[in-house]
Automatic annotation (TrEMBL):
Domain N-acetyltransferase: 14-152
SUPFAM superfamilies: Acyl-CoA N-acyltransferases (Nat)
Domain of life: Bacteria
Gene3D superfamilies tied to this protein: 3.40.630.30
Protein name, as recorded: GNAT family N-acetyltransferase
Amino acid sequence: MPVPLREPGGLTLVDGPDLTGRDVHAIWTIRDVVFAVEQQCDEPDPDVVDLQPTTSHLWLADAAGITSYLRTYVSAAGVRRVGRVCTRKDARGSGLSGSLMQHVLDRWGTERIDLGAQAYLHDWYAGFGFVRDGEDYVEAGIPHVPMTRPPA
């Protein structure tokens, strides 16, 4: 079992089963603020994916908590997915989510990677090599675009 990566002031990468209670609280705090409060998503955030063995949580933090976060996991269909990408309001615009996405590509870029992009972020994900892979849809009350990135 790999040891969770926890670099002081740097990237943290923890697999679902290795999350501590403190980790879960910090993750759900940023996701709640961004998705439930700011974006007023109409679906609950916590799900069974968070604790699965194929799920990895990546984040950056400062003294106030997580600044930017995402999770990646292997779906039931055997395809790696990225989701729950979010950045704390006071840390936006500083490239933190881009750093996390680049880490995902560096680590898992030889695999196909799928995601459901909020529609307004289509071009941002396209900058990482993702392309549209279907029709728009609404999830949690927000327009999304299915996207995929072929193996590098």
